[in-house]
Amino acid sequence: MYLIRGERLGLIDTGVASTPAEYIEPALRSMGLSLRDVEVVINSHGHHDHAGGNDAVHRAAQCEIWIHRDDAPIARDPDAAFDLFFARNLSLVGRASRLEQARVAHRVTAGQPAPIARELVDGDVLDFGRGIAFRVVHTPGHTRGCITLHWEAEGIAISEDSALGRGSRPGGMPLIFYPDLYRSSLQRIEGLRPRVLCLGHHYLTLRQTRESIRYGDLVAAFLRESAEIQEHIEAAMDRALLALGTGAPFEQLARGALRHLEEEMDLAAGPDGWPNGAIGALSSAWAARTGALIAGH
Hints:
Blueprint: E1 2-5, E2 9-12, H1 19-29, E3 40-42, H2 48-51, H3 54-61, E4 64-68, H4 72-76, H5 78-85, H6 87-92, H7 99-110, E5 118-120, E6 125-129, E7 132-138, E8 147-151, E9 156-160, H8 179-191, E10 196-203, E11 211-215, H9 217-244, H10 250-261, H11 278-290
Parallel strand pairs: 2-3, 3-4, 4-5, 9-10
Antiparallel strand pairs: 1-2, 6-7, 7-8, 8-9, 10-11
Helix pairs in contact: 8-9, 9-10, 9-11, 10-11
């Protein structure tokens, strides 16, 4: 999350439902502020770990909530977000029996939806005063409504989850849900030529340390590595499809792709037997290659 201190106080993202009380309020108190002082929340996208605290901040401050119009529906309906991005993971690997338990856990972190005052579009200029003005750059790929906020005068781009590296978990993979859009968005962010890139998590790459902000030459390097990692994922799925055929079950293809990916990336299985993010990233590559229909995509 990032704080904007212009003539208006703005907050970029709010974490999960418990984040405002647990982290944001104490951080603001250390600066002589409180949640009540927040006038605007800008959501970089509609996922529960970036918009789940909206209701808590809105109840405390009666602030405005701004989000790109393409992600407004999932911010308004956490169940729709769960179905779109997370339910498919369990269904594709034969774990549909766990769906309801996972949905309940998602509702807890997603919190209650807050009213959206403004639906952003590409090119909007958000002027907070004191020389702080961000241009909205639509950079989908992680979601359809991901944005990068570009403060051109200072060379700062706040991309949050629009550029993912290799994900935030050691041994994991990036959550790329729309591969073609993601590729174009990485190019668009690089075209901004920022000198500072502010990310949504402590993202790993293949060669850089795990950081949430990149500076100078490391900005372009991070974006290039993010594109390289996507290429590895898609190439691994291509090899699995060539070996097993397009009619093979997804889980079999995904396991095959992971074996190829282990040649390029240091992967580690999580408690469910899969590297974090692997099912989402691989299923998106699989759907793009085969035309398979995934609910909502």
